[in-house]
Amino acid sequence: METGADALVEAGDEALRAGEWAAAERCYRSALELAEAGEALFGLAIARWWSGDTGEALRSWERAYAVFRRHSAPGQAVLSAVYLCLAFRMSLGNDAAARGWAARATELVDEFELTEMRGWVLLCRAYLANDEAKPHVAERCAREALALAREVGDADLTLCSLSELGAALVELGEAEAGAALLDQAMAAALAGEGGDLDTVVLISCRTITTCSRAADIKRAVQWIRAADDFNRRYGSTHLYTTCRTHYGSVLFAVGDWQQAEEELQTAMKIGGGAEPVLHAQAAAKLAELRLAQGRLDDAERLIAGLDDQPATTYARAALHLAKGAPKATISLVRRRLRDLDEEYRERSSLLDLLVAALVTKGDDRDLAARLEEVAAFRRTDAALVTGYHQRALGRGMAALGDPSAVEHLEAALSAFGSVDMRYECGRTRLVLAQVFAGHDTETAVADARAALACFEQLAAARDADLAAAVLRSLGVRSPRTGPKGLGLLTKRELEVLGLLGEGRPNRDIAERLYISRKTVEHHVASILGKLGFSGRAEAAAYAVRHLGRTSAPE
Questions:
Q1: What does the pLDDT look like over 57-91, one tens digit per residue?
Q2: Domain boundaries, the chain
Q3: What is 489-547's CATH number?
Q4: Nearest to 424 by CA among 409, 413, 436
């Protein structure tokens, strides 16, 4: 006989299926006032997760798990453990808790011989393996989960397994086959084939993340738009933040830096409380953008306190190199490489950065050893990986005097160009210019000019200064057309420069910025040195031209 609590739970379930989260929450809370039902707690957890309250969602799933165990409902307890595993990993990045709940789900499936639930446990393993840079494990688990899903006729599990298998194949270098599975899972999920809205979120986030990281720009943008359309109807904080984070990453890659910044800042704001993992990813990518702009201090502030997040490794290592600390870069990159599967995609960009640091450090013996590792890391159908791989080889070989360096660098340029990664194309052309500088001045000048044009168009001030320096070394006078040197200044120095442009004396600058006159003098001297000016009048004129400061002093 149906009780009042049962009716309320049924009404809550109906509201969940319709995406009416507030209505579902009211039904479940009313049911819980009558009795502590596991079904009501489970539904409440889903409603709160969709509303962006990750903390209460996790607490409700934990309570639901405990109730199901007390009431001898092992199948529902396994499902609670599966949701806890995925939520702890997706939203909080808590790998220990995620692995713990996956293990608990496995134990219950084995203990109670819950064959129909085994596929969901395998899906958890595949999801964790994909996130932990173990694509071989992810592929195996996803294939097993897919077989079980088809055997029992579970449409949601089938689509989720296809998605995880597709992601694993992309990571393993089978980009075309993997992308086809991701497309298939996304299309079916958005059409409602699985029937569970949670399935759409899981598959959308996996697809968007994989396409973004693989620099599959067109596919990433198309699915982000489709996911945004879904999200306008149902509203998932996790999916919204994922879209903003990876759309920002895509825009950064193709050179739309202003829009990229807006997307990444939105992701950081939304994800700061409920989605710390995505917050860290957005902060790391925005830090990479700040590095490209030459704003090192801003980049450092963005990733401060996020050392425990693997997503920030590249940004932190690149920041060390930009600050002239290649040893710190080498140490950090090597530590991360030890945690990654030998064929994981992230290795390519890290190896490229490692080679750049070794070249800067001038350690030819270590460089030669590392180039052997780079040469062994071969992927044929992933343009992004090919680009980083070939540039690492070319840069390293050039440092060791190997004439085949140019061939690898030109292959890198072609690979980056094929996925429209303008900034990486510019950086590769700059390396080519440096290689040609010793024996083919005409080609070196052409490549350096192309790099400079790219950097000035993107407002990559620091790289533009480096390209201009190469051109000057080749005898080209006044190569810069845009503002020179801005990327070398700290945020405080930019503030001081702007006030110089207003004609303010050191006393006024000190009062305006709440610093001492001696500190102002130090900043002015640093600005003159970095920009190569003979005096503050020249710096002030420069500020008027490039910072728009024309006000008279108050």
A1: 999 999 999 999 999 999 999 999 999 999 999 88
A2: 364-485, 489-547
A3: 1.10.10.10
A4: 413
